[in-house]
Amino acid sequence: MIIWIASYPKSGNTYIRSFLASYYFSDNGKFDFDQLLKIHQFPNMKFSKFKPESKNEASRNWIFNQNIYFKKDRLNLVKTHNCLFPFKGHNFTSKNETLGAIYIVRDPRNVITSMKHHYSLDYESALNNMLDENCSLLEKSHDHDYSNFTYLNSWSNNYRSWKNNLEFETLFIKYEDIANNKEKFLNK
Question: Which residues is 171 bridged to in the sheet?
């Protein structure tokens, strides 16, 4: 079953994964960047049975691919930035694939700054992305493969989609709280 490590981009997903990877995948509790590779990202070309040629086709295969690649008889920590609201009628996941989730929420004023620097945007463009209900991440290969299509939606809708989810339990962690009390976060 999957435990999602979810967030809007630039909200601290990698930070949380570094704690979890150190805890679950190291012998001595020390972090090594290679451990992050054990927490896979979804959607991802690596976890797509077919080569979808559109965003709609990619979203139609999300749950199918989760069932193919993430076995239900073991724990799968999986990173995502995907919104839980359906995309063109296609759900991202369900309680049949998902055991639970950890959602990292970061002050949107800090997200804008981080997006600005990471994606080389101005503040207005970063804000417009965060307000765009059609916003997505898409790393398209040279041959029009949409396997990596990630439906972000707006910052607020991304957050609400996970917050209002009734399918499975979701633990909400504030990025700013982690920096102040790492031990409390790890105990949660």
Answer: 102
In whole numbers, what is the pLDDT of the chain averaged over residues?
93
Q: What is the pLDDT of residues 87-134, one digit of tens each?
A: 999 999 999 999 999 999 999 999 999 999 999 999 999 999 999 999
* 97 three-class SS: coil
Q: Where are the beta strands (DSSP E) in 35-92?
A: 40-41, 76-80
Asked if 63 and 97 touch (Cβ cutoff 8 Å), the reply is yes
d(CA 90, CA 33): 34
Q: Which amino acid is at 163?
A: K
Q: β-strands 98-105, 2-7: how paired?
A: parallel
Which positions ≥6 away from 82 have C-beta within 8 Å? 6, 42, 43, 62, 92, 150, 151, 152
Q: Select the CATH number that applies to the domain covering 2-187 from these four: 2.130.10.10, 3.40.50.300, 3.30.870.10, 3.30.470.20.
A: 3.40.50.300
Cβ atoms < 10 Å from Cβ of 139: 13
Q: Identify the residue whose tokens are 């972000």.
A: 152
pLDDT at site 142: 62
